[in-house]
Amino acid sequence: MGEPAARARPVGASARRLEDAEATDRVERAESAGPADGVAERLDDVEVADLVGRVEAELSALESMPGATAARALDAVALLTRVYGEALARIVDRVAGDRAVAGELAADELVGHLLVLHGVHPEPLPQRVARALDRLRPLLGGGEARLEGVEGGIARVRLSGTHGCGTRPLEDAVRDAVLATAPELSRVDLRSGEPAFVPVEALLSRPSAAP
Fold it and tell me: Which InterPro entries match (predicted)?
């Protein structure tokens, strides 16, 4: 999508208002424009995020409205969502034999979120989290972020060997990366350092009987 050349930006609140207005205008133009030569105008990531925010706001407004009309509108949205979910499931079935294509689809943030939403993501959750952590290696300064397990919607991640890195920014980056690739998780619990080593002898030995 050809954007105009970069221009001087106003600062502060005025800049934010202008950027928001420009993003909204791009989405509205994309919505109103018909397909050109059979190809619909595409949205970039900023426009998609703006559109998702507007959808969520409209759904929230509908949910707060009383009456049968709002209820029927929500039912229509739910039915349409099921149709799209079935369409996505069929796409996943068709590309299942091509790991490269399936991987590209799953790696796209928007597509991946929709696949998770409809329960048809081709990658198991632990595999997705491990892949997200692996992409963070350049930020870990030689350290490691390792998935220890997932239970009850909570991922347990252990950070080790990351001394000297900014702790809070690093932890935020790990949480953001994991939740972005696995939005069905509710929380990421981070643990620091190596797990305590327990000798095998200690595990096998029985406590001595009390005198």
Answer: FSCA_dom_sf (IPR034904)
